[in-house]
Input
Amino acid sequence: MSDIDTKNLYTDLGINKPKQTESKANDKLGQAEFLELMTAQLKFQDPLKPMENGEFLAQMAQFGTVSGINELNSAFSSMSAAFQSNQALQASTMVGRSVLVPSDQVRLSDEGQLKAAVDLEQPASQVVINVHNASGQLVHRIDMGRQQAGLLNVEWNGMNADGDRVSPGLYTVSAELHQGDNVSAGNILTAVQVESVTLGQAGQDLTLTVSDLGDISMSQIRKIM
Output
């Protein structure tokens, strides 16, 4: 209400100015004060020059717009807080569970099991999985044949081509996607365990701490296993 002089209008209309709270500045006009001023303005207006309907409605519309925006902002804040609380509750149930996230670093467990997946955006006439050790040496190759679009699960028992078990640890996994004469690289997903959940600020995504990879965004999770 920038066109209303709240400091002098009370005096001009002959009414007592209400006390201001410490949390509201003297030049701020609340809903109660606005309605009191509008009532007094109508009561003390010059009968020969009454307020025009257009002017009165414009003042009411201006205040209604500001009030509506404040209420809308408050509603959005409450909705955002409720959504974040619900998201945090859902994320907390994932602690201790395995999830698939984008990464080509896949751990071979002590039991000799490696679990990963390939995100196939379209069908492939042949999918070949290559597993390299930390030195970049190829230790295993899996021909998975023709595959349809979607998530293709990959499992390896930790045995190399000679039938020997390799050491547990992190290995690099890649995928060759054959489509006719074209060969492209596939998107690798690794299975990791969720260790903890960290709440972000309002409007920010939750952060999950997972094994091997550290902190990731909850939006990076492709599948809960």
Observations:
- The CA atoms of residues 198 and 207 lie 5 Å apart.
